[in-house]
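Field notebook, page 298. I keep forgetting to write these up properly, so this time I am using the form the group agreed on. The chain and the ligand, zinc ion, are recorded exactly as supplied. Prediction of the bound pose follows.
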Amino acid sequence: MQIGIDLGGTKIEAIALDATGRELARLRVVTPRAYTDTIVALGALVTQLETVTGQHGTVGLGIPGAVTPDTGLVKNANSVWLIGRPLGADLAALLQREVRLENDANCFALSEATDGAAAGAEVVFGVIMGTGVGGGIIVRGRSMSGRNLIAGEWGHNPLPWPQPDELPGPACYCGKHGCIESWVSGPAVAADHQRVTGQALPTPDIIAAAEFGAHDALATRARFIGRATRGLATVINLLDPDVIVLGGGLSNVPRLADDIAAQLPAWVFSDRVHTSIVRNRHGDSSGVRGAAWLWPAS
Ligand SMILES: [Zn+2]
């Protein structure tokens, strides 16, 4: 049995999978805002899953950040109480077994590459466009972390081929201007709509209005898709994956994958673009499922 845990900023979700990927049990709790409480909550979830199923499980954990290999300490986490803490070692000590940790975007990509929308593909780029913008690279079923643990983090590259009115671009929390994340995250789309129209609307409302044919919303949708396409074109130029899987809240934009695929040939350095652009299969469950697959079924 494989146990996967997705440690999010607001909730912790945990599932138990059998070797075929069938879900045996699932639990969800609110994320504690302190480190020790978080360890206790994670341990309790594993114990409960094993009690419910009557089986012993491997444990994989997806976190909003990365773990420095030399030290085992968490870095780059937006759940700041985790930063600088030996989360893996402490959880392993509590559970009396090895625990594998991975960035949550990499878990998403691993889930979709294992038995999701990109199952069987050799090189997969999993994209998160949600509250933030991230990504993960899977090669032959393995997550590529990278020497600096930032492989696939396309969100803080600058928006490619910027138009004059896209310069210098919105300020990003990373200290730069015009990062891809500052254009194609959920909050960024709402901010873009407000800059152009003066209307403050949540992004899901803008997307819904576009479906009803509202001109302002259609224009915002078109700018979003054009920018996402330009960003992904540079990913293809560098990595040339077989499949790009779209995830995060904005992957719910109707026809997003087809619209991006239609525009890619204008930007990719190739006379034809064979890359498959697909929506995720496992939706919100990809994080926990990918964490579970950090221990592949044997
Ligand atoms: Zn940035």
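OBSERVATIONS:
- The CA atoms of residues 100 and 179 lie 31 Å apart.
- The mean pLDDT is 95.
FOLLOW-UP: compare against the apo run.
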